[in-house]
Amino acid sequence: MKQISISETVMFYDTDCGGVVSNIAYLRFVERARSALFAEMGMDIAAMNESQLFPAVIRTEIDYRFPARLGDVVNITASLSEVQKVKVTCEFRLWIGECVENGKLIAEAKQIAALVQMPSGRPRRTPSEWLGFIDS
Amino acid sequence: MKQISISETVMFYDTDCGGVVSNIAYLRFVERARSALFAEMGMDIAAMNESQLFPAVIRTEIDYRFPARLGDVVNITASLSEVQKVKVTCEFRLWIGECVENGKLIAEAKQIAALVQMPSGRPRRTPSEWLGFIDS
Amino acid sequence: MKQISISETVMFYDTDCGGVVSNIAYLRFVERARSALFAEMGMDIAAMNESQLFPAVIRTEIDYRFPARLGDVVNITASLSEVQKVKVTCEFRLWIGECVENGKLIAEAKQIAALVQMPSGRPRRTPSEWLGFIDS
Amino acid sequence: MKQISISETVMFYDTDCGGVVSNIAYLRFVERARSALFAEMGMDIAAMNESQLFPAVIRTEIDYRFPARLGDVVNITASLSEVQKVKVTCEFRLWIGECVENGKLIAEAKQIAALVQMPSGRPRRTPSEWLGFIDS
Fold first, then answer.
1. Is the bond leading into B67 cis (omega within 30 degrees of zero)?
2. What separation, in Å, do the N-terminal and C-terminal C-alpha atoms of chain C show?
3. Which residues have a Cβ under 8 Å from the Cβ of A99 and sit 6 or more positions away?
4. SS3 label, residue B29
5. Rounded average pLDDT over A57-76
6. What value does the mean pLDDT of chain C take?
7. pLDDT value at position D100?
8. pLDDT score of A1
């Protein structure tokens, strides 16, 4: 299964006056992980700029499990969980600590993205080789 | 049913280089509508500052239906759809146009919030009068 | 002198864990006021979309005088203070209270914007009628 | 002279519909560099959390020289340029390319920060050893 991990340190601008990371800021962490995952799948930003083929997020789900705070190092694991004709599903786990099993789970998210050809905005078929990223 | 509507004009900072509103920016629109809805339910910011009782978002779902663009006036309707012991569910419709029926639906979202007593972070029961906001 | 005023209520996403409005968030308030000022000068977003002529910010200065907090209503006054061949200077005052004289000054900012023709990115001359917006 | 460098890749959420990095997004890059510089000076986030002594930005100046775009790797160099009794000045250069001399200068910024003791909000003297970070 295609999967990547990144780490991000919580900045002041990620937090709100509740003292914890704002529910909106987590989506920046998710976008960074999604970009890294698509790069791993052959769609890095240079490739997207050339092909003008972009993944457009059409659905986001996120469950906030435990608050992260200023200075926390948040690990984000992104994996490709489903490939359909014109869309793919990515799953994300955000956690603090040495490894995801022993760490503290901060949030879980899922995003569905559709491939869109710019500038027409027309949907495009997902590359057939992406199906191979799912098995086992 | 408790329901409010607000309008927001799309700013440059709400858009991304795809030419449309960023999937993250929609959550600012949702937060503004949620704040207005909670104010209508008796929890405006002054009341929250005094009671130190805050709604913490524990889940967000959002479906992006149609892209909004720079200068669009986005209407956001927020309604309270469920009241449970320690959490409530709010639903949001974002649309462009004269009315939600004839307008263009931009996005739909749902958020679940839990009431939290600060600074302890303990969950609190939802006010019993909120149940009355749901019927009919 | 061309001048406009707007008001914004501080949202959770505008604050950081210092309990006050983030230094970055003030620039959203400034951008909203700048957009309203340019609309007053004949460059609203519809006009910009048609002409493809946009003001690009080339310099920002901001002094943070006093912290604003969650729920504060921040008033922002924007005025056109200088018109040059290819750029204009806008000045901003952000304050809380009934009027700018008796209110609490939160921040002062200045932005220089150049008119840019898209998609070429070429600089364009400021409209000659804008000089009339400065005197007295 | 105390100086650090970091690199950031431009994400979708950093850009706006002009196709380039939003003038507001640059301040996130600056904040990341400022955090790294203060860590180098002995004030990392763990130390700040313990001492409750925080640098509050009281002035920002930023000149936008050349637009950065999606996927660009922006290098940010931050240096401590002045130490006064209760405030310090930091200078930032943002550039693209192999080195700052041969690279493309994207933006230059300056921030003045005052040390503030939380929760009282009282200003505090800058540590005397910081003067040693300036010479030569």
1. no
2. 6
3. none
4. helix
5. 97
6. 94
7. 73
8. 79
Question: Nearest CA to CA, how far is B87 from chain C (Å)?
Answer: 19
Neighboring chain B residues of A59 at a CB cutoff of 8 Å: 61-64
Task: Please state which CATH number belongs to domain D3-133.
Answer: 3.10.129.10
The predicted-structure confidence for A79-98, as pLDDT tens digits, reads as follows 999 999 999 999 999 999 98
Q: Give the number of other CB atoms < 10 A from CB of residue A114.
A: 19
Tens-place pLDDT, residues B24-47: 999 999 999 999 999 999 999 889
Residues of D in contact with B15 (CB under 8 A): 16-17
- Tell me the chain D residues in contact with residue A71 when contact means C-beta distances shorter than 8 Å: 44-46, 48-49
Contacts of A54 in chain B (CB under 8 A): 18
Q: How far apart are CA D126 and CA D115, in angstroms?
A: 7
pLDDT for A108 beyond 60: yes
Instruction: Measure A13 CA to nearest chain D CA, in Å.
Output: 7
Q: For residues A70-75, give the mean pLDDT.
A: 96
User: Scanning the structure block, which residue is given the tokens 């929890």?
Assistant: B43
Is A48 in CB contact (< 8 Å) with chain B?
Answer: no
| Residue pair D66/D83 in contact by the 8 Å Cβ criterion | no
Which chains border A (3 or more CB–CB pairs < 8 Å)? B, C, D
Q: What confidence tens digit (pLDDT) does each residue in C58-90 have?
A: 999 999 999 999 999 999 999 999 999 999 999
Q: Residue C8: closest CA among chain B residues belongs to which residue? A: B32
Task: State the Cα–Cα distance between residues A135 and A62, nearest whole angstrom.
Answer: 25
Any residues with CB less than 8 A from the CB of B17 and at least 6 apart, and which?
D12, D15, D16, D17, D18, D19, D20, D69, D70
Closest-CA residue of B relative to C57 is B12
Cβ neighbour number for residue A102 with a 10 Å cutoff: 8
Burial class (CB in 10 A: 0-12, 13-18, 19+), C89: middle
Say if strands B53-64 and D73-83 run parallel, antiparallel, or are unpaired: unpaired
Whether C12 contacts chain A with CB within 8 A? yes
Q: Residue B48 — pLDDT band, cuts 50, 70, 90?
A: very high
Residue recorded with tokens 């002041």: A12
